[in-house]
């Protein structure tokens, strides 16, 4: 049993079989997380560095916890307060860390392609924990795992990704993954936040009316409005965005079916998602966070692969 | 290929192992049986069926344990994990661990590690169908043994079960 790739740089590089292996392995790790002692010795003697060049709460804690549950040794690196502020290059930083005999690198960077660059230059296995607006593969895997847990399968299910598609790495990874696993995908939101030619490029549906999108789907994956990545005005105000595209309780109640609501976090409450929806029984946001640890354990376990004897 | 246990011998052996377990644990008070995934479960299913026939009133807790994440060769080769299902506490219980073939002892070592993550049992006993004696790499011995055989490293013991391979037989290849 082996993944077809040495690194996890993006969902784009994975085969459907790889995805299946990761999700199935995560199911077993989820069982481990229910035990009185939630720790297995699988990655004993493996050293992992978490390189976070960009802020993150959930992903960093989730990776760190996954590594600890697998008994790996971990080092945490955050760009602020490091020699990066003195002008050290990415490659120099990583090479220095690798000289200390590190086997795997988990990397979050604001520049798209940063982990791909590293993969060409260093021998350690690299896991992309989000690069710019490119991909966030472990988030897509945990989203898929959560959907599979609720609906039994991904094949033939209708998943709508709502909100800021333009700036979202989660959207891109989700689209790749869901398409590979046979789900029907729709992106919905204001036209200014959905890249042109999305429908043709990815063979997915595009919808500008959020009510129609919710009526169509089994699961709504609501994305955060990424104000930090927007350098031009793409909608008039947060209040107007909420009125036109926010997911509200009244909107969900008006549907003739129950759908599951997901969100990769952090939530802008009252913007893309109202509090009464985020905290409702239809929301599986906290289950996503829980599943994140199991999925990341599976990825780390499968990529730890064979080490030279 | 040499037959170690024929279908009839296998049935008799399982019956004997079940009786031996009941002799040591009359009434099965505070006792549970745990089969080791994947292949030990075929044997533990049979033993549990037999024990339930012999003692219909006894309360028997039965679980299945996967040891993939506890193996000591995990860095050489990754294995597909199986399902662990232990829906009860093993704290202060007598646990009877069941596997089909005892060879180097490494599987049982991993199983003991895995088991202790579920609680602290009062006692753990080991029941195996075939013991490849003189092949041990760790100091582990069975408490209940179906058949002891002498074998060399290049030989392989395979247990066939009617449920998945269409026949009941133990062979030496």
Describe the protein in words:
The complex is a heterodimer of chains A (309) and B (173). With 309 residues, chain A is an alpha/beta fold. Chain A has helices at residues 16-32, 58-69, 90-99, 114-121, 137-151, 169-180, 198-202, 210-216, 238-245, 249-253, 275-278, 285-304; strands at 47-52, 73-78, 104-109, 125-131, 158-162, 184-188, 205-207, 219-222, 260-262. In chain A, strands 7-6-5-8-9 form a five-stranded parallel beta sheet, sandwiched between helices. In chain A, α1 crosses α12. Chain A starts with 15 loop residues before the first helix and ends in a 5-residue tail after the last helix. In chain A, 46% of the residues are buried. The model of chain A has no long low-confidence stretch (mean pLDDT 92). Chain B contains four helices and eight strands. A five-stranded parallel beta sheet of chain B has the order 3-2-4-5-6, sandwiched between helices. Chain B has a three-stranded antiparallel beta sheet with strand order 1-8-7. Chain B starts with a strand and ends with a strand. Chain A binds chain B through residues 1-2, 24-25, 28, 31-32, 35-37, 39-42, 45, 301-302, 304-307, 309, and chain B through 66, 68-70, 74-84, 113-114, 116-119.
Q: What is the element layout, followed by pairings?
A:
The complex is a heterodimer of chains A (309) and B (173).
Chain A: H1 16-32, E1 47-52, H2 58-69, E2 73-78, H3 90-99, E3 104-109, H4 114-121, E4 125-131, H5 137-151, E5 158-162, H6 169-180, E6 184-188, H7 198-202, E7 205-207, H8 210-216, E8 219-222, H9 238-245, H10 249-253, E9 260-262, H11 275-278, H12 285-304
Parallel strand pairs in A: 1-2, 1-3, 3-4, 5-6, 5-8, 6-7, 8-9
Chain B: E1 2-5, H1 7-24, E2 31-36, H2 40-54, E3 61-65, E4 94-102, H3 106-116, E5 123-133, E6 144-150, E7 157-160, H4 162-165, E8 169-172
Parallel strand pairs in B: 2-3, 2-4, 4-5, 5-6
Antiparallel strand pairs in B: 1-8, 7-8
Helix pairs in contact in B: 1-2
């Amino acid at each position: 049993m082996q993944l077809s790739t040495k690194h996890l740089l993006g969902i784009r590089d994975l085969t459907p079989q790889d995805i299946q292996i990761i999700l199935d392995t995560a199911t077993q790790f989820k069982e481990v997380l229910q035990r009185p002692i939630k720790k297995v010795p699988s990655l004993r003697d493996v050293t992992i560095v978490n390189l976070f060049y960009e802020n993150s709460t959930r992903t960093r804690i989730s990776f760190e916890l996954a590594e600890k549950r697998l008994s790996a040794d971990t080092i945490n690196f955050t760009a602020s307060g490091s020699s990066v502020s003195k002008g050290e290059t990415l490659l120099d930083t990583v090479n220095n860390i690798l000289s200390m005999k590190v086997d795997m690198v988990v990397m979050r960077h604001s520049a798209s392609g940063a982990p791909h660059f590293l993969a060409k230059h260093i021998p350690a296995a690299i896991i992309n924990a989000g690069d710019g607006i490119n991909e966030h593969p472990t988030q897509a895997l945990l989203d898929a795992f959560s959907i599979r847990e609720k609906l039994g399968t991904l094949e033939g299910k209708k998943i709508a990704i709502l909100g800021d598609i333009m700036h979202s790495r989660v959207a891109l990874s989700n689209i790749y993954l869901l398409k590979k696993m046979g789900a029907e995908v729709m992106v919905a939101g204001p036209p200014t936040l959905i890249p042109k030619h999305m429908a043709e490029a990815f063979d997915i549906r595009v919808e500008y009316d959020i009510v129609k999108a919710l009526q169509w789907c089994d699961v709504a994956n609501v994305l955060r409005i990424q104000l930090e990545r927007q350098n031009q005005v793409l909608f008039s105000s947060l209040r107007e965005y909420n009125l036109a595209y926010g997911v509200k309780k009244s909107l969900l109640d008006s549907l003739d079916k129950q759908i599951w609501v997901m969100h990769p976090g952090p939530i802008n409450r009252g913007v893309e998602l109202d509090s009464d929806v985020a905290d409702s029984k239809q929301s599986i946001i906290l289950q996503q966070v829980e599943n994140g640890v199991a999925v990341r354990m599976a990825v780390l376990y499968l990529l730890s692969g064979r080490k030279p004897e | 290929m040499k037959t170690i246990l024929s279908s009839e011998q296998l049935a008799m052996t399982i019956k004997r192992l079940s009786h031996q377990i009941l002799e040591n644990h009359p009434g099965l008070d505070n006792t549970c049986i745990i089969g080791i995934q994947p292949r030990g479960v075929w044997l533990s299913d049979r033993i549990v069926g037999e024990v339930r026939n012999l003692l219909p009133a006894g309360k028997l807790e039965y679980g299945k344990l996967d040891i993939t994440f506890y193996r000591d060769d995990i860095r050489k080769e990754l294995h597909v994990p199986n399902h662990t299902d232990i829906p009860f506490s093993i704290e202060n219980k007598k646990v009877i661990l069941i596997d089909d073939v005892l060879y180097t002892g490494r599987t049982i070592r991993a199983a003991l590690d895995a088991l202790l993550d579920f609680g602290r049992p009062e006692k753990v006993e080991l029941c195996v169908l075939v013991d490849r004696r003189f092949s041990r790499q760790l100091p582990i011995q069975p408490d209940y043994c179906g058949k002891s055989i002498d074998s060399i490293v290049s030989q392989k013991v395979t247990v066939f079960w009617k449920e998945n391979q269409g026949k009941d037989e133990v062979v030496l290849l």
